[in-house]
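Hi F.,

I've been meaning to write this up properly since the lab meeting, where we talked about keeping a consistent format for the predictions we share between groups. The idea is simple: the sequence comes first, exactly as it goes in, then the structure tokens exactly as they come out, then a line or two of notes. No screenshots and no reformatting. I'm using this chain as the first example so we have something concrete to point to.
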Amino acid sequence: MKLSVTQKQKLKHVIIITASGIGIAMIYPLFAEEWNKPIAFINAFFIGLVGGVVVSIIELEIFDPQRKRRSFLFTLTLKTLIYFLFFTLLIPFIMAFNESIYYHRGFWEHIRSEQFQHFLFQEDYKIILIYSFIFIVIIIFTRQMSRKLGQESY
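Output, unedited:
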């Protein structure tokens, strides 16, 4: 099957956004000094992968630049809120799913575990959300500026 020029451009953007998401997510365990915990990198990889693919689809299909143009600030705010809400839900889901397998527990059993509750309410979850928020704003701002200046073509 031969891809059209537009399909090739969209695929390129999906790959770039997904690879960036994986890269950014894989950095966090290093900052959190969890380089000796394989599950931290497994979680980061899947959060970056799923997050990158979903953000790519949203960018290409919902926020397609060919559709109605909205103000820079409105678009920046809307995207930030949507992606932040998405990652707020995605991160604990991916972590609970992966860790339930890693620690040989049922999914719901792991969610109710003291270890997972501790993560959500007393450990890194808030820091991970702040980390995610900062990168979401930086990436959206950069992409919006690129679009505004005519550097992005899709």
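Notes:
The CA atoms of residues 2 and 8 lie 9 Å apart.
The chain is about 80% helix and 0% strand.

If this format works for you, I'll send the rest the same way.

G.
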